Amino acid sequence: MAKDGGLDWDGLLKWSLANSDGTQPARQLTDEDRRWFMEAMQAQTVDVVRRMKEISLVMSTPDNVLQSQGVTPDDIHNMLDELHEHVESIDMANDLHSVGGLVPLLGYLRSPHANLRAKAADVVSTIVQNNPKSQQLVMEANGLDPLLTNFNSDSSITSRTKALGAISSLIQHNKPGITAFRLASGYAALKDALSSDDVRFQRKALNLIKYLLHENSADCSIVTELGIPRQMVHLASSADSDVREAALGGLLELAKDKKSGALADEEKLKSVLQSRIEVICEMSQDQLEAAREERQLVDSLWKECYDAPSSLREKGLVVLPGEETFTQPPDVAGKFFEPALRAWSTPKQDGSNISESAGEKKDAPPPLLLGPGSSYGSSASQNNGDSD
């Protein structure tokens, strides 16, 4: 059970694997098995909450006090890395406010250190993703304001990108958040982001534009007035496939709104689409399979704009043989090793989700965090780089 007063993680892992490795029929658990397992899980929950309280206390401590104790920005980054792991569980994400950690975390969005601003935004993004309760708590704590500031004008492109990712997660399926974003000239900031040379920043901006237009077609007029459609047409020829697909998806949303006249310069768009069709027609089989979404977007956009199928459809390149009946291979191990996905907590309302998460899992319990968290100030998780 316990070793030296602590939780026996090795024993818990061995017990879990022995009882759920899928190699033999499940056996009936004894009362002792159940009692031991429940005690282990309860101890882990208490341990995580206690650790989150400790992290919250450190985050609430003034910088000068931390510096006097020899705490460095790298130490703080490691601590935020650990907190990030804990809040992958939606229950722990919602508990962060209860233990006094949400407001101090938002304070790090104003840190003088770019890597801490970026990491804080990354943690916030995870906390609010598909989580209406935490979305409301962050909005009530005025968390959108520093995120908008960093998105608009941070000197670090990584911090700007992370802030944009957090904003996207915060306002998704959050009407007050979307309204606040509009009132804060969010679309103008998105236009500026599209002018960046950073493809990740461009892609996140395009995906957010696509989502907002899907949610409210009336915004097409705002986007048109700002000249964003011209930028999207240009980016539809990007060398980055993800940027191309995001731009084409946004243009398709604009094309569906005939009133806005967003795609008045159809000749330029037509030239871009014809160029993409020529490239697609020259692709190998492997390249065609990788470009499945782009093939379908180009054809849909052509049909929406010109009321006729594209030449891709005539050549049988929109839907390749076998794609109509494509099914995923059976998931043999998934039920035993399920990742901590936020899509468990909130059902998708449509297919336009901008967060990169898997599908919903109805009535699934929250994922359990197994294994001891890294201690504060440890050398683990020191990767300060950007990640999706």
From TrEMBL:
Q: Give the top-rank taxon of the lineage listed in the UniProt record for this protein.
A: Eukaryota
Tell me the keywords, alphabetical order.
Repeat
The molecular function terms in GO held by this entry are: adenyl-nucleotide exchange factor activity
Q: Where is this region: Disordered?
A: 343-388
Q: Which InterPro entries match?
A: ARM-like, ARM-type_fold, Hsp70_NEF-Inhibitors, Nucleotide_exch_fac_Fes1, TOG
| Bias kind Polar residues: ranges | 346-356
Residue intervals of the TOG domain = 58-290
> Where is composition skewed (Low complexity) in this entry?
370-379
* GO CC terms, sorted: endoplasmic reticulum
Q: Does the keyword Repeat apply?
A: yes
What is the protein name given in its UniProt record? Answer: Hsp70 nucleotide exchange factor fes1
